[in-house]
Design a protein that fits this description.
The chain has one helix and 13 strands, in the order βββββββββββββα. The strands form three sheets. It has a five-stranded mixed sheet with strand order 7-5-13-9-11.
Length: 192
C-alpha cells in the first residue's frame, strides 16, 4: 500500500503486510472542488502480493469538521535572571485534538547551593486562543521550592476547548504557544 499526503509530492509512504494508517485531512482552501486532487487530499493505493494495483482510495476532506482537526502546541520556558534555575520543557511541541486531555512535563533544576522558591507566570499565544486553553493541573498554580541542586519534573495537564474551532477569530489557528517564566519569591526559605 502506498500512502500519499497533501504537499508530499510524488514520494509515497509504503506499508506492506497488514496495518492501518490514520491521517488528519484538511482542505487547504476549504473549497470542495479540490476533492481527489493529489495536492489537496490524502489518498491510498492498494496493491496485491504481486505488486499489481488493486485500487486507489481518496480520503475525503472534512471542511468545517473539527472532530479530525489537530492543533500544534509549542512549549517555551524562561527564568528571571534573579532565580538561579535551569528551566525547560521536556518536549517542545505536541499535537492535540481539541477536547482531549494532554499531559506534558517541564524540568527545573536549582543551580545554586541554597534553597530557592519560585513562582511561574504563564501566557498563551496568540492572545485570542487564551480563553480556550484550559489547564487542569499545573506547577504554576503554587509556589515551587527547590533545594540546593535539586531537579524536578513538573507536570502540566491541559486541554484545548473544542469551541476554538467555532470561533471566527480562532477557527483557522493551527499553532498555540504556552510560555512560562519562573520568578524568584522572596521568603524566609529563599533568604537563608
Amino acid at each position: 500500500m502506498e500512502f500519499f499526503v497533501p504537499g508530499g509530492g510524488d514520494i509515497p509512504a509504503v506499508s506492506s503486510g497488514f496495518g492501518a494508517i490514520f491521517s488528519d485531512v484538511d482542505e487547504p482552501d476549504g473549497r470542495p472542488q479540490h476533492y481527489g486532487s493529489k495536492d489537496a487530499s490524502t489518498y491510498l493505493r492498494f496493491y496485491d502480493a504481486y505488486g499489481e494495483l488493486l485500487y486507489t482510495s481518496v480520503v475525503a476532506p472534512s471542511p468545517g469538521d473539527a472532530s479530525l482537526s489537530f492543533l500544534g502546541v509549542r512549549f517555551d520556558a524562561n527564568t528571571h535572571p534573579g532565580l538561579p534555575w535551569r528551566f525547560e520543557p521536556e518536549q517542545t511541541r505536541v499535537e492535540v485534538k481539541p477536547g482531549a486531555q494532554t499531559q506534558i512535563f517541564y524540568r527545573a533544576e536549582n543551580l545554586s547551593g541554597r534553597d530557592w522558591t519560585g513562582q511561574a507566570a504563564y501566557n498563551v499565544s496568540p492572545d485570542q486562543v487564551g480563553k480556550y486553553f484550559k489547564k487542569i493541573q499545573c506547577f504554576c498554580f503554587t509556589e515551587q521550592t527547590l533545594k540546593a541542586g535539586q531537579k524536578v519534573d513538573m507536570p502540566v495537564l491541559f486541554f484545548v476547548d473544542p469551541a476554538i474551532r467555532q470561533d471566527p477569530d480562532t477557527k483557522d489557528i493551527d499553532e498555540i504557544t504556552l510560555s512560562y517564566t519562573f520568578y524568584p519569591v522572596e521568603s524566609r526559605t529563599a533568604a537563608r
